[in-house]
Amino acid sequence: MTNFLAYDDVTDLNTLIQEGLNAKQNPFADQSLGHNKTIGLIFFNSSLRTRMSTQKAAQNLGMNVIMMNVGQDSWGLEMEEGTVMDGDKAEHVKEAAAVVGKYCDIVAVRAFAGLKDREQDYREVVMNQFKKYAGVPIINLESATRHPLQSLADCITIEEFKVRKRPKIVLTWLPHFKPLPQAVANSFCEWINHTDAEFVVTHPEGYDLAPEFVGNARVSYNQDEAFEGADFIYGKNWSSYQQYGQVLTQDASWMVTMDKMKLTDNGKFMHCLPVRRNMKVTDEVLDSPQSLVIEQAANREWSAQAVLKGVLQGL
Ligand code: SN0
Protein backbone atom coordinates (compact mmCIF):
# COMPACT_ATOMS: atom_id res chain seq x y z
CA MET A 1 0.00 0.00 0.00
CA THR A 2 1.42 3.40 -0.96
CA ASN A 3 -1.17 5.78 0.45
CA PHE A 4 -4.32 5.18 2.51
CA LEU A 5 -6.74 7.94 1.60
CA ALA A 6 -9.85 6.03 0.52
CA TYR A 7 -11.25 2.57 -0.20
CA ASP A 8 -9.55 2.69 -3.62
CA ASP A 9 -6.16 2.31 -1.91
CA VAL A 10 -7.14 -1.14 -0.58
CA THR A 11 -6.01 -4.12 -2.64
CA ASP A 12 -8.18 -6.74 -0.93
CA LEU A 13 -10.64 -5.88 1.86
CA ASN A 14 -10.92 -9.39 3.32
CA THR A 15 -7.14 -9.65 3.62
CA LEU A 16 -6.98 -6.25 5.34
CA ILE A 17 -9.74 -7.24 7.81
CA GLN A 18 -7.84 -10.45 8.50
CA GLU A 19 -4.62 -8.46 9.07
CA GLY A 20 -6.52 -6.43 11.68
CA LEU A 21 -7.77 -9.57 13.42
CA ASN A 22 -4.24 -11.04 13.33
CA ALA A 23 -2.82 -7.89 14.93
CA LYS A 24 -5.46 -8.15 17.66
CA GLN A 25 -4.40 -11.74 18.38
CA ASN A 26 -0.71 -10.99 18.29
CA PRO A 27 0.01 -7.22 18.53
CA PHE A 28 3.81 -7.43 18.60
CA ALA A 29 4.41 -9.97 15.81
CA ASP A 30 5.76 -7.27 13.45
CA GLN A 31 7.72 -5.15 15.93
CA SER A 32 10.84 -5.10 13.79
CA LEU A 33 8.99 -3.86 10.68
CA GLY A 34 8.83 -0.24 11.87
CA HIS A 35 12.21 -0.14 13.60
CA ASN A 36 13.91 3.25 13.00
CA LYS A 37 10.90 4.46 11.01
CA THR A 38 8.99 7.60 12.02
CA ILE A 39 5.32 8.50 11.54
CA GLY A 40 4.11 12.11 11.82
CA LEU A 41 0.53 12.59 13.02
CA ILE A 42 -0.73 15.99 11.87
CA PHE A 43 -4.01 17.20 13.39
CA PHE A 44 -6.04 20.17 12.17
CA ASN A 45 -8.92 19.05 14.48
CA SER A 46 -9.63 17.39 17.83
CA SER A 47 -9.18 13.66 18.32
CA LEU A 48 -9.25 11.01 21.01
CA ARG A 49 -9.49 7.55 19.41
CA THR A 50 -7.67 8.36 16.18
CA ARG A 51 -4.73 9.96 17.97
CA MET A 52 -4.29 7.27 20.62
CA SER A 53 -5.03 4.22 18.45
CA THR A 54 -2.73 5.32 15.63
CA GLN A 55 0.09 6.10 18.06
CA LYS A 56 -0.41 2.75 19.77
CA ALA A 57 -0.52 0.85 16.48
CA ALA A 58 2.67 2.57 15.29
CA GLN A 59 4.40 1.67 18.57
CA ASN A 60 3.23 -1.95 18.30
CA LEU A 61 5.07 -1.99 14.96
CA GLY A 62 8.22 -0.52 16.56
CA MET A 63 7.85 2.96 15.03
CA ASN A 64 8.68 6.38 16.45
CA VAL A 65 5.78 8.85 16.59
CA ILE A 66 5.75 12.66 16.26
CA MET A 67 2.49 14.57 16.80
CA MET A 68 1.61 18.08 15.65
CA ASN A 69 -1.50 20.18 16.18
CA VAL A 70 -1.51 22.53 13.20
CA GLY A 71 -2.61 26.09 13.87
CA GLN A 72 -2.23 25.57 17.61
CA ASP A 73 1.40 24.45 17.87
CA SER A 74 2.65 25.29 14.37
CA TRP A 75 1.91 27.99 11.77
CA GLY A 76 -1.49 28.22 10.10
CA LEU A 77 -1.18 26.58 6.66
CA GLU A 78 -2.29 28.00 3.30
CA MET A 79 -3.62 25.22 1.06
CA GLU A 80 -4.48 26.99 -2.20
CA GLU A 81 -1.93 27.61 -4.96
CA GLY A 82 -0.98 31.07 -6.16
CA THR A 83 -2.56 33.07 -3.35
CA VAL A 84 -1.11 36.27 -1.92
CA MET A 85 -0.45 35.19 1.65
CA ASP A 86 -1.51 38.39 3.40
CA GLY A 87 -3.99 36.72 5.80
CA ASP A 88 -3.61 34.67 8.98
CA LYS A 89 -1.77 31.74 7.34
CA ALA A 90 1.99 32.18 7.75
CA GLU A 91 3.16 29.07 5.89
CA HIS A 92 2.23 27.28 2.65
CA VAL A 93 1.54 23.55 2.55
CA LYS A 94 4.15 23.31 -0.25
CA GLU A 95 6.94 23.93 2.24
CA ALA A 96 5.26 22.49 5.34
CA ALA A 97 4.39 19.11 3.78
CA ALA A 98 7.80 18.85 2.12
CA VAL A 99 9.57 19.55 5.42
CA VAL A 100 7.40 17.10 7.41
CA GLY A 101 8.13 14.52 4.71
CA LYS A 102 11.87 14.97 5.37
CA TYR A 103 11.46 14.10 9.07
CA CYS A 104 8.90 11.31 8.64
CA ASP A 105 8.66 8.08 6.64
CA ILE A 106 4.84 8.20 6.77
CA VAL A 107 2.63 11.25 7.30
CA ALA A 108 -0.91 10.91 8.67
CA VAL A 109 -3.28 13.87 8.47
CA ARG A 110 -6.65 14.83 10.00
CA ALA A 111 -8.48 17.75 8.39
CA PHE A 112 -12.29 17.92 8.68
CA ALA A 113 -14.63 19.44 6.13
CA GLY A 114 -15.06 23.20 6.43
CA LEU A 115 -18.78 22.72 5.54
CA LYS A 116 -18.89 26.14 3.84
CA ASP A 117 -17.90 25.31 0.26
CA ARG A 118 -18.97 21.87 -0.99
CA GLU A 119 -16.85 21.97 -4.12
CA GLN A 120 -13.72 22.79 -2.11
CA ASP A 121 -14.39 20.12 0.56
CA TYR A 122 -15.10 17.41 -2.03
CA ARG A 123 -11.87 18.29 -3.89
CA GLU A 124 -10.02 17.00 -0.77
CA VAL A 125 -7.55 19.87 -0.97
CA VAL A 126 -5.63 19.13 2.24
CA MET A 127 -5.08 15.40 1.59
CA ASN A 128 -4.19 16.01 -2.04
CA GLN A 129 -1.74 18.80 -1.23
CA PHE A 130 0.01 16.64 1.38
CA LYS A 131 0.09 13.76 -1.11
CA LYS A 132 1.57 16.04 -3.74
CA TYR A 133 4.25 17.70 -1.61
CA ALA A 134 5.24 15.36 1.26
CA GLY A 135 7.06 12.85 -0.96
CA VAL A 136 6.19 9.99 1.45
CA PRO A 137 3.02 7.86 1.96
CA ILE A 138 -0.02 9.74 3.35
CA ILE A 139 -2.63 8.26 5.67
CA ASN A 140 -6.10 9.77 6.09
CA LEU A 141 -7.05 10.32 9.76
CA GLU A 142 -10.44 11.80 8.64
CA SER A 143 -10.54 14.13 5.71
CA ALA A 144 -13.30 16.36 4.34
CA THR A 145 -15.18 13.46 2.74
CA ARG A 146 -13.88 10.22 4.31
CA HIS A 147 -12.70 8.43 7.48
CA PRO A 148 -11.28 5.15 6.14
CA LEU A 149 -9.49 3.99 9.34
CA GLN A 150 -12.88 4.19 11.07
CA SER A 151 -14.57 2.28 8.25
CA LEU A 152 -11.98 -0.49 8.42
CA ALA A 153 -12.48 -0.77 12.21
CA ASP A 154 -16.24 -0.93 11.52
CA CYS A 155 -15.75 -3.76 9.00
CA ILE A 156 -13.55 -5.65 11.51
CA THR A 157 -16.24 -5.21 14.20
CA ILE A 158 -19.04 -6.40 11.89
CA GLU A 159 -16.91 -9.41 10.89
CA GLU A 160 -16.50 -10.30 14.60
CA PHE A 161 -20.16 -9.88 15.59
CA LYS A 162 -22.19 -10.91 12.55
CA VAL A 163 -24.40 -13.97 13.07
CA ARG A 164 -25.25 -14.56 9.40
CA LYS A 165 -23.15 -14.54 6.26
CA ARG A 166 -25.05 -11.64 4.70
CA PRO A 167 -26.08 -9.34 7.57
CA LYS A 168 -28.61 -6.52 7.29
CA ILE A 169 -26.73 -3.28 8.03
CA VAL A 170 -28.56 0.03 8.50
CA LEU A 171 -26.84 3.42 8.51
CA THR A 172 -29.17 5.86 10.27
CA TRP A 173 -28.99 9.62 10.54
CA LEU A 174 -29.26 10.87 14.16
CA PRO A 175 -30.39 14.31 15.39
CA HIS A 176 -27.79 16.92 16.41
CA PHE A 177 -27.87 20.72 16.76
CA LYS A 178 -24.41 21.26 15.22
CA PRO A 179 -23.52 20.79 11.56
CA LEU A 180 -21.22 17.74 11.35
CA PRO A 181 -19.29 16.44 8.33
CA GLN A 182 -20.57 13.69 6.04
CA ALA A 183 -17.15 11.96 6.16
CA VAL A 184 -17.93 9.05 8.51
CA ALA A 185 -21.24 8.29 6.78
CA ASN A 186 -19.73 8.59 3.26
CA SER A 187 -16.86 6.31 4.15
CA PHE A 188 -19.10 3.74 5.88
CA CYS A 189 -21.19 3.56 2.67
CA GLU A 190 -18.09 3.28 0.49
CA TRP A 191 -16.73 0.33 2.51
CA ILE A 192 -19.98 -1.53 3.28
CA ASN A 193 -20.88 -1.37 -0.42
CA HIS A 194 -17.82 -3.59 -0.97
CA THR A 195 -18.97 -6.23 1.54
CA ASP A 196 -21.64 -8.92 1.25
CA ALA A 197 -24.54 -7.27 3.11
CA GLU A 198 -28.10 -6.00 2.75
CA PHE A 199 -27.33 -2.31 3.16
CA VAL A 200 -29.94 0.37 3.91
CA VAL A 201 -29.32 4.09 4.52
CA THR A 202 -32.08 5.95 6.37
CA HIS A 203 -32.40 9.69 7.02
CA PRO A 204 -34.93 12.54 6.81
CA GLU A 205 -35.55 14.10 3.39
CA GLY A 206 -32.86 16.63 2.48
CA TYR A 207 -30.07 14.54 4.01
CA ASP A 208 -29.23 12.36 0.98
CA LEU A 209 -25.50 11.70 0.83
CA ALA A 210 -23.48 12.22 -2.35
CA PRO A 211 -24.57 9.60 -4.95
CA GLU A 212 -20.98 8.41 -5.49
CA PHE A 213 -20.94 7.23 -1.85
CA VAL A 214 -24.50 5.87 -1.60
CA GLY A 215 -23.91 3.64 -4.63
CA ASN A 216 -26.36 0.74 -4.71
CA ALA A 217 -27.47 1.04 -1.07
CA ARG A 218 -31.26 1.22 -0.57
CA VAL A 219 -32.31 4.63 0.75
CA SER A 220 -35.37 4.97 3.03
CA TYR A 221 -36.89 8.06 4.65
CA ASN A 222 -38.73 5.79 7.11
CA GLN A 223 -36.45 4.83 9.99
CA ASP A 224 -38.84 2.26 11.54
CA GLU A 225 -39.21 0.44 8.24
CA ALA A 226 -35.43 0.48 7.72
CA PHE A 227 -34.73 -0.97 11.19
CA GLU A 228 -36.94 -4.05 10.69
CA GLY A 229 -34.91 -7.25 11.00
CA ALA A 230 -31.55 -5.40 11.07
CA ASP A 231 -28.40 -7.05 12.47
CA PHE A 232 -26.46 -3.77 12.82
CA ILE A 233 -27.67 -0.21 13.40
CA TYR A 234 -24.89 2.27 12.63
CA GLY A 235 -25.81 5.72 13.95
CA LYS A 236 -24.28 9.00 12.79
CA ASN A 237 -25.33 12.60 12.41
CA TRP A 238 -24.35 14.52 9.29
CA SER A 239 -25.28 17.92 7.91
CA SER A 240 -27.03 18.27 4.55
CA TYR A 241 -25.08 17.59 1.36
CA GLN A 242 -27.67 19.26 -0.91
CA GLN A 243 -28.07 22.40 1.24
CA TYR A 244 -24.44 22.09 2.02
CA GLY A 245 -23.40 22.11 5.67
CA GLN A 246 -26.85 23.06 6.97
CA VAL A 247 -28.88 21.60 9.84
CA LEU A 248 -32.35 21.16 8.27
CA THR A 249 -34.02 19.45 11.24
CA GLN A 250 -33.24 18.29 14.77
CA ASP A 251 -36.26 15.94 14.82
CA ALA A 252 -35.84 14.05 18.11
CA SER A 253 -37.94 11.14 16.81
CA TRP A 254 -34.79 10.02 14.89
CA MET A 255 -32.92 9.37 18.17
CA VAL A 256 -32.18 5.65 18.65
CA THR A 257 -34.16 4.26 21.61
CA MET A 258 -34.71 0.77 22.99
CA ASP A 259 -38.16 0.74 21.33
CA LYS A 260 -36.46 1.33 17.98
CA MET A 261 -33.88 -1.39 18.68
CA LYS A 262 -36.80 -3.79 19.32
CA LEU A 263 -37.68 -3.51 15.62
CA THR A 264 -34.33 -5.10 14.76
CA ASP A 265 -33.42 -8.79 14.91
CA ASN A 266 -31.56 -8.48 18.21
CA GLY A 267 -29.45 -5.91 16.35
CA LYS A 268 -26.23 -4.35 17.59
CA PHE A 269 -25.79 -0.58 17.89
CA MET A 270 -22.63 1.00 16.47
CA HIS A 271 -21.30 4.59 16.52
CA CYS A 272 -17.83 5.96 15.76
CA LEU A 273 -17.87 8.21 18.90
CA PRO A 274 -17.88 10.82 20.28
CA VAL A 275 -21.61 10.43 20.87
CA ARG A 276 -23.94 12.84 22.66
CA ARG A 277 -26.08 10.77 24.99
CA ASN A 278 -29.86 11.23 24.95
CA MET A 279 -29.60 13.47 21.89
CA LYS A 280 -28.52 10.93 19.30
CA VAL A 281 -29.08 7.71 21.25
CA THR A 282 -30.43 6.96 24.72
CA ASP A 283 -28.40 5.87 27.76
CA GLU A 284 -30.43 2.67 27.77
CA VAL A 285 -29.17 1.64 24.31
CA LEU A 286 -25.56 2.74 24.90
CA ASP A 287 -25.40 0.95 28.26
CA SER A 288 -27.03 -2.24 26.97
CA PRO A 289 -25.20 -5.37 25.78
CA GLN A 290 -26.49 -4.52 22.28
CA SER A 291 -24.07 -1.57 22.08
CA LEU A 292 -20.74 -2.27 20.36
CA VAL A 293 -19.29 1.23 20.64
CA ILE A 294 -16.42 0.30 22.96
CA GLU A 295 -15.45 -2.83 21.00
CA GLN A 296 -15.63 -0.75 17.84
CA ALA A 297 -13.32 1.93 19.30
CA ALA A 298 -10.94 -0.77 20.55
CA ASN A 299 -10.71 -2.08 16.99
CA ARG A 300 -9.38 1.28 15.83
CA GLU A 301 -5.96 0.11 17.08
CA TRP A 302 -6.08 -3.01 14.89
CA SER A 303 -7.42 -1.14 11.91
CA ALA A 304 -4.53 1.35 12.13
CA GLN A 305 -2.03 -1.46 12.65
CA ALA A 306 -3.21 -3.38 9.57
CA VAL A 307 -2.90 -0.23 7.45
CA LEU A 308 0.49 0.84 8.84
CA LYS A 309 1.85 -2.65 8.28
CA GLY A 310 0.72 -2.53 4.66
CA VAL A 311 2.32 0.90 4.14
CA LEU A 312 5.56 -0.08 5.91
CA GLN A 313 5.85 -3.16 3.70
CA GLY A 314 5.72 -0.88 0.67
CA LEU A 315 8.49 1.48 1.83
C1 SN0 B 1 -16.63 14.36 13.98
C2 SN0 B 1 -17.46 14.04 12.73
O1 SN0 B 1 -16.90 13.87 11.64
O2 SN0 B 1 -18.68 13.95 12.86
C3 SN0 B 1 -15.61 13.28 14.25
C4 SN0 B 1 -16.13 11.88 14.31
C5 SN0 B 1 -15.03 10.85 14.42
N1 SN0 B 1 -17.51 14.49 15.11
C6 SN0 B 1 -17.69 15.65 15.74
O3 SN0 B 1 -17.13 16.65 15.35
C7 SN0 B 1 -18.62 15.67 16.94
C8 SN0 B 1 -18.73 17.04 17.52
C9 SN0 B 1 -19.85 17.22 18.51
O4 SN0 B 1 -19.89 18.36 19.03
O5 SN0 B 1 -20.68 16.36 18.75
UniProtKB/TrEMBL annotation:
<dbReference type="InterPro" id="IPR036901">
    <property type="entry name" value="Asp/Orn_carbamoylTrfase_sf"/>
</dbReference>
<feature type="domain" description="Aspartate/ornithine carbamoyltransferase Asp/Orn-binding">
    <location>
        <begin position="184"/>
        <end position="309"/>
    </location>
</feature>
<feature type="binding site" description="in other chain">
    <location>
        <position position="300"/>
    </location>
    <ligand>
        <name>carbamoyl phosphate</name>
    </ligand>
</feature>
<dbReference type="GO" id="GO:0042450">
    <property type="term" value="P:L-arginine biosynthetic process via ornithine"/>
</dbReference>
<feature type="binding site">
    <location>
        <position position="176"/>
    </location>
    <ligand>
        <name>N(2)-succinyl-L-ornithine</name>
    </ligand>
</feature>
<keyword id="KW-0808">Transferase</keyword>
<dbReference type="Pfam" id="PF00185">
    <property type="entry name" value="OTCace"/>
</dbReference>
<comment type="similarity">
    <text>Belongs to the aspartate/ornithine carbamoyltransferase superfamily. SOTCase family.</text>
</comment>
<feature type="binding site">
    <location>
        <position position="75"/>
    </location>
    <ligand>
        <name>carbamoyl phosphate</name>
    </ligand>
</feature>
<dbReference type="Pfam" id="PF02729">
    <property type="entry name" value="OTCace_N"/>
</dbReference>
<feature type="binding site" description="in other chain">
    <location>
        <begin position="47"/>
        <end position="50"/>
    </location>
    <ligand>
        <name>carbamoyl phosphate</name>
    </ligand>
</feature>
<dbReference type="GO" id="GO:0019240">
    <property type="term" value="P:citrulline biosynthetic process"/>
</dbReference>
<feature type="binding site">
    <location>
        <position position="276"/>
    </location>
    <ligand>
        <name>N(2)-succinyl-L-ornithine</name>
    </ligand>
</feature>
<protein>
    <recommendedName>
        <fullName>N-succinylornithine carbamoyltransferase</fullName>
        <ecNumber>2.1.3.11</ecNumber>
    </recommendedName>
</protein>
<dbReference type="GO" id="GO:0016597">
    <property type="term" value="F:amino acid binding"/>
</dbReference>
<comment type="pathway">
    <text>Amino-acid biosynthesis; L-arginine biosynthesis.</text>
</comment>
<feature type="binding site" description="in other chain">
    <location>
        <begin position="147"/>
        <end position="150"/>
    </location>
    <ligand>
        <name>carbamoyl phosphate</name>
    </ligand>
</feature>
<dbReference type="InterPro" id="IPR006132">
    <property type="entry name" value="Asp/Orn_carbamoyltranf_P-bd"/>
</dbReference>
<keyword id="KW-0028">Amino-acid biosynthesis</keyword>
<dbReference type="GO" id="GO:0004585">
    <property type="term" value="F:ornithine carbamoyltransferase activity"/>
</dbReference>
<dbReference type="InterPro" id="IPR006131">
    <property type="entry name" value="Asp_carbamoyltransf_Asp/Orn-bd"/>
</dbReference>
<feature type="binding site">
    <location>
        <position position="142"/>
    </location>
    <ligand>
        <name>N(2)-succinyl-L-ornithine</name>
    </ligand>
</feature>
<feature type="binding site">
    <location>
        <position position="236"/>
    </location>
    <ligand>
        <name>N(2)-succinyl-L-ornithine</name>
    </ligand>
</feature>
<feature type="binding site" description="in other chain">
    <location>
        <position position="110"/>
    </location>
    <ligand>
        <name>carbamoyl phosphate</name>
    </ligand>
</feature>
<keyword id="KW-0055">Arginine biosynthesis</keyword>
<comment type="function">
    <text>Catalyzes the transfer of the carbamoyl group from carbamoyl phosphate to the delta-amino group of N(2)-succinyl-L-ornithine to produce N(2)-succinyl-L-citrulline. Is essential for arginine biosynthesis.</text>
</comment>
<dbReference type="InterPro" id="IPR006130">
    <property type="entry name" value="Asp/Orn_carbamoylTrfase"/>
</dbReference>
<feature type="binding site" description="in other chain">
    <location>
        <begin position="272"/>
        <end position="273"/>
    </location>
    <ligand>
        <name>carbamoyl phosphate</name>
    </ligand>
</feature>
<comment type="subunit">
    <text>Homotrimer.</text>
</comment>
<feature type="domain" description="Aspartate/ornithine carbamoyltransferase carbamoyl-P binding">
    <location>
        <begin position="4"/>
        <end position="160"/>
    </location>
</feature>
<dbReference type="InterPro" id="IPR043696">
    <property type="entry name" value="ArgF'-like"/>
</dbReference>
